[in-house]
């Protein structure tokens, strides 16, 4: 059986989405900026897609949606665009558990002279809102906080965060890449100024995203050149992918409540089964509100990469919580920030489900998991007891090259 439980990394493109895209490669290949009908008719289709994406995120006006090339671009455009528009302010507030698209950029900006406040999380992955309140100053240009964590699925209380930033008149950017299509929300009714989403997390193709910028927010474009996207993002549009993202947004909006309920059941079942069948296992972020589809589970003394390699041999695709390169792995910055103890830190595995997964797949994973864990725990115990090097074949498994993606 092949089981794809890595939907926070990326999702399958829906057949309806692929079908909607195809004519924009083969027939309607005009440039939407052209004056002639061949181009302007494409422009009308982009406007439809913009309205579909605006509906998914609950934007008051489709004009607030700017198409981008991915979530990373949306995050960069939001943060850089806001800083450039407020050159007198040199302080950014973010969290220690952001995706590298925000984390890496803020580290870079720190080197360039910005002051960054890195908010902590507790052992459930939750933020301390008093710490956020205390961090907001006259000099704060922007607060950038993710809605849902890609590794643990932990959801932050964006409404309360937004109430605090709004009270101080500080713009709030929300990385909603993992939230869009998984939990229902209406950005227009929340105190959010900018919001990033990415198509490939909700069954649109990779390489297309959107940035919401609330009407009235002063924002400097990140890509400068042509007049596309009302001068807010230059570059000829990725038309077919934008059309696909619109279609995927329309479908996600229609299903989000239903999917969220069924995925919660499926995830909870997987969680209960694995905790029962695998000794020395624990769920990271279990006590916090979480995305319906995400389970981050640690196996004590193991390396997540080894588990992934053995799961892969059984046709099961999952992910760890950390990016790693061949032969060396860094523990996840998210789990570290949560204070996960050292003996559980390396052994994290993320299962992220979609509506295409079934109870039979959950049962299959649960069938395979105990023997994988037992096998690796046996080697791990041996290594800890006599501190001897492991057999060559197991070293290969232990030094897996699978990294967390997404
Ligand atoms: N932000 C979060 C929370 C993510 O999970 C991801 C991707 O996994 C990104 C940003 C980056 O999105 P993209 O892969 O579209 O660049």
Structural account:
Residues 389-404 have low confidence and may be disordered. The relative contact order is 0.16. Helix 10 packs across helix 13 (359-386). Helix 7 (158-168) links the parallel strand 5 and strand 6 (172-175). The strands form four sheets. The chain has a seven-stranded mixed β-sheet, with helices on both faces. It has 14 helices and 14 strands. Helix content is 43%, strand content 14%. With 406 residues, it is an alpha/beta fold. It has helices spanning 15-21, 23-26, 37-57, 71-85, 100-111, 129-135, 158-168, 228-231, 239-277, 304-313, 333-337, 342-345, 359-386, 392-398, and strands at residues 3-4, 65-68, 91-95, 115-119, 140-146, 172-175, 194-198, 209-213, 281-283, 294-299, 316-317, 324-325, 328-329, 348-352. Bound molecules: pyridoxal-5'-phosphate (PLP).
Task: Tell me the layout of helices and strands.
Layout: E1 3-4, H1 15-21, H2 23-26, H3 37-57, E2 65-68, H4 71-85, E3 91-95, H5 100-111, E4 115-119, H6 129-135, E5 140-146, H7 158-168, E6 172-175, E7 194-198, E8 209-213, H8 228-231, H9 239-277, E9 281-283, E10 294-299, H10 304-313, E11 316-317, E12 324-325, E13 328-329, H11 333-337, H12 342-345, E14 348-352, H13 359-386, H14 392-398
Parallel strand pairs: 1-11, 3-4, 3-5, 5-6, 6-7
Antiparallel strand pairs: 2-8, 7-8, 9-10, 10-14, 12-13
Helix pairs in contact: 1-9, 3-9, 9-13, 10-13
This protein binds pyridoxal-5'-phosphate.
The site of pyridoxal-5'-phosphate has 14 residues, from helix 4.
């Amino acid at each position: 059986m092949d089981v794809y439980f890595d939907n926070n990394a990326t999702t399958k493109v829906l057949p309806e989405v692929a079908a909607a895209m195809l004519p924009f490669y083969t027939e309607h290949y005009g440039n939407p900026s052209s004056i002639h009908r061949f181009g302007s008719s494409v422009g009308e289709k982009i406007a439809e897609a913009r309205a579909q994406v605006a509906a998914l995120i609950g934007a008051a006006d489709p004009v607030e949606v700017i198409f981008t090339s991915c979530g990373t671009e949306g995050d960069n455009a939001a943060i850089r665009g806001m800083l450039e528009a407020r050159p007198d302010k040199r302080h950014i507030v973010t969290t220690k558990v952001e995706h590298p698209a925000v984390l890496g950029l803020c580290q870079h900006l720190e080197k360039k002279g910005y002051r960054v406040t890195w908010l902590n999380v507790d052992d459930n992955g939750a933020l301390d809102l008093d710490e956020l309140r205390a961090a907001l100053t006259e000099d704060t240009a922007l607060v950038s906080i993710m809605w849902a964590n890609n590794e643990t699925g932990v959801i932050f209380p964006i409404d309360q965060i937004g109430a605090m930033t709004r009270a101080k008149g500080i713009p709030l950017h929300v990385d909603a890449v993992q939230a869009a299509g998984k939990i229902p929300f209406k950005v227009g009714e929340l105190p959010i100024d900018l919001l990033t989403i990415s198509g490939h997390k909700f069954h649109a193709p990779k390489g297309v995203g959107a940035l919401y910028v609330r009407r009235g927010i002063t924002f400097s474009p990140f890509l400068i050149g042509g007049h596309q996207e009302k001068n807010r993002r230059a570059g000829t549009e990725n038309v077919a992918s934008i059309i696909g993202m619109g279609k995927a947004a329309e479908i996600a909006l229609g299903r989000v409540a239903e999917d969220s309920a069924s995925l919660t059941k499926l995830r909870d079942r997987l969680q209960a089964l694995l905790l029962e069948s695998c000794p020395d296992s624990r769920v990271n972020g279990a006590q916090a509100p979480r995305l319906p589809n995400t389970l981050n589970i640690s196996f004590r003394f193991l390396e997540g990469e080894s588990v992934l390699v053995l799961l892969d041999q059984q046709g099961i695709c999952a992910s760890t919580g950390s990016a790693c390169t061949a032969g060396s792995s860094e523990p996840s910055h998210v789990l570290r920030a949560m204070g996960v103890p050292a003996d559980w830190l390396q052994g994290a595995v993320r299962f992220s489900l979609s509506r295409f997964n079934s109870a039979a797949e959950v049962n299959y994973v649960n069938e395979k998991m105990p023997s994988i864990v037992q096998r690796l725990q046996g080697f791990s115990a041996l290594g800890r007891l006599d501190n001897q090097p492991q057999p060559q074949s197991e070293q290969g498994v232990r030094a897996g090259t699978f990294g967390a993606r997404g």
